[in-house]
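Help!! Second protein's tokens look totally different from the first
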Amino acid sequence: MSLLPREPRFQARALRQIDEALGYVQGRSPQGAAKIEARLTHLIQRLREHPQLGVRTSVAGVRRLYLVPYPYLIDDVVTDAAIIVQPFRHTARRPVP
């Protein structure tokens, strides 16, 4: 694998899920939505620097990163060229196949 930082790429579904979650929180707490967005941005930057961040899942090549202290998570796959952000979801929701 390359030692250079990888560019994050978001699956369309992940972008939609992020937008829906932030929109939901925004309607109840604009400050809360801003904090979640800032945490997500920070973690994506950390992933660029440390691609093995997060825990392995039962799916080969997929790692999971929790947005602590917020109840959200992202799954990602790291390639030589990119970090592919897959589904983003609330931890209380069941995974979508």
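Here's the second one for comparison:
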Amino acid sequence: MTTRSIDKGTSGEDFAVRFLTSRGCTVVERNARVDVDEIDVVVRDGRSLVAVEVKTSWNGDDPVAAVDDEKFARFARAAHAYPRLIARLDIVGVEFGEVGATIRWLRGVE
């Protein structure tokens, strides 16, 4: 992964975190390492602990579509191995365009 893609991913993750907190979620942890896998963001949404996978697009592609079966399996494996009980798996897609960003928040994906 190049430095530029890391910066883009971090920007998308920062944007997603601001979005989630504006919707009432509280960030518990970011970039949570679980064995060899990672959860981008762990939030508390009401009384539920939620693992969030964040995908970012800068080229017009659907960022949520980038979560293929293999990526989702790694994400789910990390969430199930997280030391606290994760109640829900969410995906947040951040698509940056010329005039701003679009957010898609998919709750309770399986």
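Reply: Different proteins will give different token patterns, so don't panic. The two ends are 27 Å apart (CA to CA).
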